[in-house]
Amino acid sequence: MSLKITHECINCDVCEPVCPNKAIFQGIEIYEIKPELCTECVGHFDTPQCVDVCPVDCIPLDPDHVESKEQLDLKYRQLVGKPI
């Protein structure tokens, strides 16, 4: 499952630089996450880095983009060019 940023976001700018897949970007009102790039940091870290640094806990799992750990790992491998 990818993550999403909710409207509780305060635009503090701490999540975007820690995303290893560059999935986080400044949207019109708040930061947003591109689900096609979000792997919940699978392949990079043990925990999602954006969630770890968010001071207002506004980055939950996105129920509209459900993915298993295996699917996230496959997405990670495709993003970084590792053999599948």
UniProtKB/TrEMBL annotation:
> Where's the 4Fe-4S ferredoxin-type domain?
1-29, 31-64
Q: Which organism is it from?
A: Stenotrophobium rhamnosiphilum
- Give the protein's recorded name: Ferredoxin
- Report the cofactors: [4Fe-4S] cluster
Q: Which GO terms describe its molecular function?
A: 4 iron, 4 sulfur cluster binding; metal ion binding
Query: Which InterPro entries does this one have?
Result: 4Fe4S_Fe-S-bd, 4Fe4S_Fe_S_CS, PSI_iron-sulfur_center, YfhL-like
Q: Does the keyword Ligase apply?
A: no
Q: Which UniProt keywords apply?
A: 4Fe-4S, Electron transport, Iron, Iron-sulfur, Metal-binding, Transport
* Protein's UniProt keywords contain Iron: yes
